[in-house]
Amino acid sequence: MKSDSQTFARAFGDFATGFSQRELWLSLGWQDIKQRYRRSVLGPFWITIATGLQATAMGILYSMLLDQPLREFLPYVTVGLIVWNVINASILEGADVFIANEGLIKQLPSALSVHIYRMVWRQLLFFAHNMVIYLVMLVAFGVWEDVSWASLLAIPAILLLFLNCMWVSIFFGIFSTRYRDIAPILGSTTLMLFVLTPVMWTTSTLENQMGAGSERARLVELVPTFHYLEIVRAPLLGEPQALRHWVIVGVITLVGWVVAILAMKQFRSRVPYWV
Length: 275
What we know:
Layout lengths: L7 H13 L1 H15 L8 H21 L4 H26 L1 H4 L1 H6 L5 H28 L13 H25 L3 H15 L6 H8 L13 H13 L6 H25 L3 H4 L1
């Protein structure tokens, strides 16, 4: 008899079964955060404090280095750092998602996608805690004056961001389980992407400082994380954004999910043996 473990039906069935087990991954994701801050007075709000301190320190430092007004630059850096934390975690934690859940995969009869949902849900909780900093910025730095109805585009942008977190976690999670060298490579890659992505610097500043060579600054368009950052940060800060960012992110999302589904179809049944 021919095995049906490597079929699209089983792959999509895994996603459906995993989502139906949402009580499990919702509980596990919340427990991950509670366990991390167990016995602390402020609990999960240490997430907000840590991100706020990091954004403040980097915002002040780079505003001085780049000669940028702090009132405009600090919100820019803060929102950029909040979004980058999601991108960074989806790559690094996504690569480790199945290895870290080895015991559950071998002992708990659940869909493989449960661990993906759990990780993405945990990152969504982290993101929600960090958005408290953004709300403070709205008032403290007068960002609310620039916010308009166009800022509602941040909602589909955030949903698109986490949709990409899922396929990234599936793809890297499967292949990092099989090839353990991928995880350290991704660690170095994300560090390089952080430097190349305008989280702590702005493309406009680079263009102004480079003068005649300002066209070279547009090489940042080749960095995919730049476009994810722009579709979320621009509406949150009330800044205009180009349609090309949405188109590029849309294409990457489509291609990424196709690759992730193919990986689930072909290798889903092998993950329990690889871990």
